[in-house]
Structures are given as C-alpha cells and as structure tokens.
Amino acid sequence: MSVTILIADDHAIVREGLRTILEAQSDMVVVGEAGDGCEAVEKAELFRPDIIMMDISMPELSGIDATRQILARMPATRIIMLSMYHTNEYVIRAMKAGARGYILKESAGCSAVNAVRAVMRGRQYYGEGIVAPNMKKTPFPITPLDSLSRRERETLQLVVEGNTNATIADIFQVSIKSVETYRSRLMMKLEISNVPSLVIFALQHGVISLP
Q1: Which of 9-13, 62-66, 128-132, 142-146 is predicted with the least confidence, judged by mean pLDDT?
Q2: CA 20 to 30 Å from 43, out of 34, 96, 137, 193?
C-alpha cells in the first residue's frame, strides 16, 4: 500500500521538485499540495495523508503552528519539517510542535525519500547538516516566541505580512478590538514598540522568510 504525502510549501518550484522525487518511488504518492499554513491545515483534513512535508516558514500560518493544529486533530499524522534554518532553536521548536523529521531545503532532494521511509518506520529523521538534539537530557530553550499564545503568534505573522487590523479581524472572525488586544499583548511580551522591529524579529525567528 502506498504512503500518501501532502507537500506544504509557499514556493511552487519546491513543491514540484519534491513531487517529482517522491512520486518516482513506487510506494509513494503525493495526494495534494498547499501554498500556505492555513491551506496545509485544510488539505490535511481533506486528504488525511500519512506524511506531510511542511515548510517551517509560510504565509498566513507558520509551519510550526500548522503542525500543532494538524496534530491536535490528527495525532497519527507524521510531519517532516522543511527549513532553511539549521540552528538548534529551530530544530527544537519543530520537534516540540510534534514534527518527526527535520531536513534542510538545500538537501531536500537527497533527504526527502529517506526521511519518509524513516518516519514511517517510527523513527525520527534529521537531514544532512542537522544535529539531532538530545530531547531527554537537554532542557528546551525558552525563546521569545514561547511567551506568546497561539493567537498572538498568528497575529504576529499576519501583522508582519502587512495585514491591517480589520483584515486580521476578518480572518479570525473576531472584532477589531480583539485584534488590537492581541497586537498590544504580543508587542508588550516581546518588548517591541513598532512594526519595523516586529518584522526584523519575525525574520530572525523564522516566522517569515525573505521571498
């Protein structure tokens, strides 16, 4: 029986490349693609794939938060994180969210098939250039992002992507006043007072990435 895979990445060329590599295997089939975090959650519920190849930085909802949402609803799903970042902070954030593997985009062509096979056997997989963290002995680092609630993280991402409070309120289906509260709280927790500084923070912590 074939392993079913969903590819979530905001770059079409990455999705196409991974699809070609994975579907060259006789026992793997790509059942769908997603171009942002919200679509990844929707497609995951629609297709119920065995594996999701998830970009860590995507529009609207990060791969980290999409992973949390998907696993809360479908805990048996296995998620492999795709990333440009190799530092310990990013790897641990991905694994804390529930990812079973972590591979760098630059070596995804070589690692993707091995990662799928490993996590389907119940193992964790770390691609070339990634040092596996000792999740039992090493305490999880507390980053500024850990201080934010889920809604505050989502608000942060939408703000730095240039959305207005009104647009964010429409996306969340809440009042503008609620969005203003989320925004005020996250800026206070991060000790940041303006949007340009928020953008820099978001880039530094992989909430968003340069196009």
Answers
A1: 142-146
A2: 96
Q: For residue 205, which phi and psi values (nearest 5 degrees)?
A: -105, 15
Residue 134: how many CA atoms within 13 Å on its side-chain side?
Answer: 4
Is 83 found in the same domain as 8? yes
Secondary structure of residue 136 in the 3-state scheme: coil
Supply the DSSP string of 6-58, one letter for each residue.
EEE-S-HHHHHHHHHHHHTSTTEEEEEEESSHHHHHHHHHHH--SEEEEESS-
Record the pTM: 0.82
192 in helix, strand or coil?
coil
The token duo for 75 is 């805990």
22 and 107, same domain (yes or no): yes
